[in-house]
Amino acid sequence: MQLSVKALKDHYIICGASHTGLFIAEELAKTAYPFVIIENNHDLAHELLYRSFLTIDADATEDRALAMAAIKRAKGLFCCLKNDRDNAFVALTARILN
Known about the structure:
Blueprint: H1 2-6, E1 12-15, H2 19-30, E2 35-39, H3 42-50, E3 55-57, H4 63-68, E4 76-79, H5 84-97
Parallel strand pairs: 1-2, 1-4, 2-3
């Protein structure tokens, strides 16, 4: 999985596999756009891997998680975390890192 994420370029990062995040992932998969999901729920992250979605089991509010998702080569970011404060924090952090 690490090698697959390292090979990504012009991809999308989905932070959080909430209802909205899963909908976005399914739509991106249908249209063959490359993407990676960052999910901090260990069980849900493994379920997403089972569904063949590139998934990083980490907290999207940490710089390390965004770096693992290759934020510097990403085309876009979807913030689908459970609260607006975390979504704003991730968006600002991603902007600083990229």
